Hints:
Strand content: under 5%
Structural class: mainly alpha
Helix content: over 70%
Shape: elongated
Distance between the termini: 34 Å
Amino acid sequence: MGVVVLSLMAVSRIVAGEGDTGDFLWAALLPLCAWIVPLMVLGWDREGQRDRKWLEDELTREWRGRALSLGFLVLMAGMSGLYLVGLYRPEWAILGFPVVLTGAAGVVGLRYAWLDGQAEGGDE
């Protein structure tokens, strides 16, 4: 959440024409951070690659698909909304982009965790 706030502050300075190199670095950091959760859900991180034989089964593939599908729908809805807002106020669309991107990534992670928790609750 802190990275989102700092990135939003940096993006607002860039939009206002007052951005410096540090602001551009913070603005560039946000999309990289947003990729972390979906990559972990996909199992493309280092631990996921190492433990693939334990993590790769039909159930986890189903969870990944469901989580990524919902995240994609949230991303598409958010970006469509930003497009419409951008027709009226382009600077608002730029400021909303970090929120939509990290929100979609958060939905992917939360959906995957919810499906995992639901499955664990059914085992008892």
